[in-house]
Design goal:
This protein has two helices and no strands. The protein is mainly α and 55 residues long.
Length: 55
């Protein structure tokens, strides 16, 4: 069974997309990390520090 021209065109498109790399995954990981860091600082400044030193 021979590949059709549509298969070759589809394969070329897939190769072009894969060659661009996982930019979306890196962006999503960066955003998620920034959110976690912001939540950490919010807890630190608004909950932990106002309670004062442990006696």
């Amino acid at each position: 069974m021979q590949p059709s021209p549509d298969d070759a065109r589809r394969d070329e498109e897939i190769e072009k997309i894969v060659a661009q790399g996982p930019a979306g995954a890196f962006a999503l990981a960066g955003i998620a990390t920034a959110i976690v860091v912001l939540i950490y600082f919010a807890f630190y400044f608004f909950i932990y520090l106002p309670r004062g030193a442990v006696q």
